[in-house]
From TrEMBL:
Entry keyword annotation includes Glycosyltransferase: no
Documented EC number(s): 2.7.1.121
Assigned keywords, A-Z: Kinase, Transferase
Protein name (database record): Phosphocarrier protein HPr
Domain of life of the organism encoding this protein: Bacteria
Function: General (non sugar-specific) component of the phosphoenolpyruvate-dependent sugar phosphotransferase system (sugar PTS). This major carbohydrate active-transport system catalyzes the phosphorylation of incoming sugar substrates concomitantly with their translocation across the cell membrane. The phosphoryl group from phosphoenolpyruvate (PEP) is transferred to the phosphoryl carrier protein HPr by enzyme I. Phospho-HPr then transfers it to the PTS EIIA domain.
Domain HPr: 135-221
The organism of origin for this protein: Kutzneria chonburiensis
Reaction(s) catalysed by this chain's protein: dihydroxyacetone + phosphoenolpyruvate = dihydroxyacetone phosphate + pyruvate
Single annotated GO MF: phosphoenolpyruvate-glycerone phosphotransferase activity
Length: 221
């Protein structure tokens, strides 16, 4: 089982689109859209959100993200009405970015607190390239056409999720935490660009090997 997600929006189409996008990053995570009113009009429906929450929580809990303030109120009420309110949490985060980050964290086996934290985290600030002390590094040429966009970034995060290593990806004078989808996307590394991957820790060599393999197979695209 994994932590599930609920996308609460005033628009059914918006909720469904965000759920679809996040689902591409996390095929094993239950992501439910709860948007619009029962008759298809704009608004948030308490019963729809409650139903979505029940379906998203398979036992490990669920994280709810919302688009506008009144949707937050409905999401909070749904959590209070949940069979186990301690297994659900509403996160204040940009709904698209938060959903993607949360989905990847849940796919990687994160617990409820970890998934909620991932949804609400801002990407780390970029810094100048500087490999950590005693770190191993490798330079890789991105062969896939679009580089580190959403899906490849999510695959990279997932492939090192279980490893004990601090990993950063460097590109064009900037660096990003390799465990943050949003930070990796922020590097704007495209096909044909060269990135440097730096890893430190017990599993550093394995992290570099796995990322190198992903690049070699063009992120399965």
């Amino acid at each position: 089982m994994t932590v599930g997600l609920v996308i609460v929006s005033h628009s059914a189409k918006l909720a469904e689109g965000v759920a679809e996008l996040a689902g591409q990053m996390a095929p094993d995570v239950v992501i439910k859209a709860a948007g619009g009113m029962e008759d298809g009009s704009i608004g948030t429906d308490f019963d729809r959100v409650c139903t979505a929450l029940e379906k998203a929580d398979s036992g490990d809990g669920a994280v709810l993200l919302y688009d506008l303030g009144s949707a937050r109120m409905i999401a909070d009420l749904a959590v209070e009405s949940h069979a186990n309110p301690l297994r659900a949490v509403v996160v204040d985060a940009p709904v698209v970015e938060g959903a993607v980050a949360a989905a990847v964290a849940a796919q990687g086996g994160g617990d409820l607190a970890g998934v909620a934290r991932a949804a609400g985290e801002r990407p780390p600030e970029f810094g100048e390239e500087a490999p950590p002390a005693n770190g191993e590094s490798v330079e890789l040429l991105l062969r896939n056409e679009v580089g580190l966009h959403a899906r490849p970034a999510a695959l990279l995060v997932r492939t090192i999720a279980s490893l004990k290593a601090d990993v950063t990806v460097h590109h064009n004078g900037q660096q990003a935490d390799a465990r943050s989808v949003l930070a990796l996307m922020g590097l704007s590394a495209r096909g044909g660009d060269t990135i440097k991957v730096v890893a430190d820790g017990p599993d550093a060599a394995e992290a570099l090997r796995r990322i190198g393999k992903l690049v070699e197979i063009e992120f399965e695209e």
